[in-house]
Amino acid sequence: MNNVTSVSTVEIYDVLDPDEIDRIFPIAPQVYGILRQRIVDNRMPPGAPIGESTLALRLKISRTPLRAALQQLAKEGMIVTRPQVGSVVAQLDAARMEEAVVMRAALETAVVRRLAERGFDQQLLARSFAEQEAAAEADDYASFFSLDEKFHAKLAELAGLPNVWAAIQSVKGHVDRQRYKLMAGIPFRSKRAFRDHKDIIRLILAGDADGAEQAMCAHVNSVLEMNPSTPGWEKHFQ
After folding, report:
1. Which of 75, 94, 139, 174 has the highest Cβ tally under 10 A?
2. Which of 39, 63, 89 is the C-terminal boundary of a domain?
3. pLDDT, tens digit, for every residue of 49-60?
């Protein structure tokens, strides 16, 4: 009860900017993306109220696209509706997170195996790697998180499987919340992720499909393993 009350007193909608919405393009997908990111980066924390009228007013949109966005977030378990309380941001769901990790690992290992078997032009990732390295060295976890998303999406695209990433994106909301929390809470967590990316690409370019699969599986599952309360965790970030 105290958690909901304290969150409700915060001007939670101040983190939403109507200027982020490009009125030329469909509104609902943009609103979904904005709200999802605010939940992932905890600017809209667990228990934060989701009031349709207030949100619509703040974002200067009608309720129709807003409801479409909220329905998608509810489907992904990012928001929940409680009797006499209304819709609120959901707590982190460990079961959903573990299920999404299993699904993501299965799909992304298939992607890297395909790349290892077919090959690709590594120069297509040169800019991505340069940007990732700069963000990791600066411990700019917010930028690295965005670059990490683009990197994995690019791998699926290079493998000729762009819809694989779209499928992963639809189930991994709670995984993203945990990933962002780790990057924000553990110094240079992004360095570990960047090293993983380099290892995965090295194995792909060597044509080692089995090795690339194993490296990707470990990379995806690391979100479940990294816990500062576990002795020796810091060795992963040195």
Report:
1. 174
2. 89
3. 888 888 888 899
